[in-house]
């Protein structure tokens, strides 16, 4: 099987590219290109809608600090316990020492439980 080409079958373009003429049908390629372009435009429109919706949601967002709702009861308990501690007078020294010793022993036990010395 041989392929015979004539010089008139080729058209040398401006940039030196060879364009095939005489029987070259690019309508299928053009249709695929148009389908791709339409699909990309639809995706771009959907992306723009989502971005606008997201932007609106972010602009409307108002942060309410939940930390204040947890701190207020703890402040009340701390105030109550501090009042008891202060009314104990000189007895608060052994209580403070035992509290410190308890916390230290918990830390040492946790260290040993985790595999330390």
How would you concisely characterize the structure shown here?
Helix content is 66%, strand content 5%. By secondary structure, the chain is mainly alpha-helical. It has a two-stranded antiparallel sheet with strand order 1-2.
What keywords describe this structure?
single chain; 117 residues; mainly alpha; two-stranded antiparallel sheet; 3 helices; 2 strands; 66% helix; elongated
Description:
By secondary structure, this protein is mainly alpha-helical. It is 66% helix and 5% strand. The protein is built from 3 helices and 2 strands; from the N terminus they run ββααα. It has helices spanning 27-60, 67-87, 92-113, and strands spanning 10-12, 18-20. A two-stranded antiparallel sheet has the order 1-2. A hairpin with a 5-residue loop joins β1 (10-12) and β2 (18-20).
